[in-house]
């Protein structure tokens, strides 16, 4: 995103609920649920993200809000969608990537069988970019499975947390900055 406010930025701002001290004290949670529940808001965000992911063979959404967005974007682009799941949610065999969060650690997984990722161009979609740990883990996981991760796109980027640096040199696109 560059320049002044656009209609999609204004929709995001108007329909985002800011929750203080969640999930722990000192954290301000960006709840995009009202945005997703608003038909015109969801359509505008989907269209904007689809423009950023254009050219990808596959759209990967990160558990769980990224699933909603990635499915909608993949439908707009006429591609498939891949759910990048939290650990323990998929039957084996899986490709897994452990990573650190701002308040703990976690594992992401994708199926090791049934989906050929080698040589496929993949765009990663999620709702919020904070420290970048989850999205960087997803990118590593997809690359290790043979995918060519071409871009990452989010609805809101929390710029003060420096998540973009964790993903460099991967191009990161944000619809709104906070």
Automatic annotation (TrEMBL):
Q: EC number(s) for this protein?
A: 2.4.2.7
Identify the enzyme class.
transferase
Reaction(s) the record says it catalyses = AMP + diphosphate = 5-phospho-alpha-D-ribose 1-diphosphate + adenine
Keyword set includes Glycosyltransferase: yes
Does the entry feature the keyword Magnesium, yes or no?
no
* Phosphoribosyltransferase domain sequence ranges: 56-156
What pathway does this protein act in?
Answer: Purine metabolism; AMP biosynthesis via salvage pathway; AMP from adenine: step 1/1
Gene Ontology MF: a single term: AMP binding
Q: Which terms are listed as keywords in the entry?
A: Cytoplasm, Glycosyltransferase, Purine salvage, Transferase
The alphabetized list of GO BP terms reads: adenine salvage; AMP salvage; purine ribonucleoside salvage
Tell me which InterPro entries the record gives.
Ade_phspho_trans, PRTase-like, PRTase_dom, UPRTase/APRTase
Location of the protein in the cell: Cytoplasm
GO CC, any one term: cytoplasm
Q: What family is this? A: Belongs to the purine/pyrimidine phosphoribosyltransferase family.
Q: How does it assemble?
A: Homodimer.
- What's the stated role of this polypeptide? Catalyzes a salvage reaction resulting in the formation of AMP, that is energically less costly than de novo synthesis.
Name recorded for this polypeptide: Adenine phosphoribosyltransferase
Q: Which organism is it from?
A: Mycobacterium palustre
């Amino acid at each position: 995103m560059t320049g002044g406010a656009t209609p999609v930025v204004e929709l995001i701002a108007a329909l985002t609920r800011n929750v203080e001290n969640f999930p722990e004290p000192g954290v301000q949670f960006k709840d995009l649920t009202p945005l997703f529940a608003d038909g015109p808001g969801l359509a505008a965000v989907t269209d904007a993200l689809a423009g950023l992911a254009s050219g990808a063979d596959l759209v990967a959404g990160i558990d769980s809000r990224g699933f909603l967005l990635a499915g909608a974007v993949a439908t707009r682009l006429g591609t498939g969608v891949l759910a990048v799941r939290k650990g323990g949610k998929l039957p084996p065999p899986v490709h897994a990537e452990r990573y650190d969060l701002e308040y703990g650690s976690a594992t992401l997984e994708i199926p090791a069988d049934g989906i050929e990722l080698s040589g496929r161009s993949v765009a990663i979609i999620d709702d919020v970019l904070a420290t970048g740990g989850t999205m960087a883990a997803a990118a590593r996981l997809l690359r290790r499975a043979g995918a060519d991760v071409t871009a990452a796109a989010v609805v809101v980027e929390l710029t003060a947390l420096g998540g973009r640096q964790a993903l460099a040199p991967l191009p990161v696109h944000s619809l709104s900055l906070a």
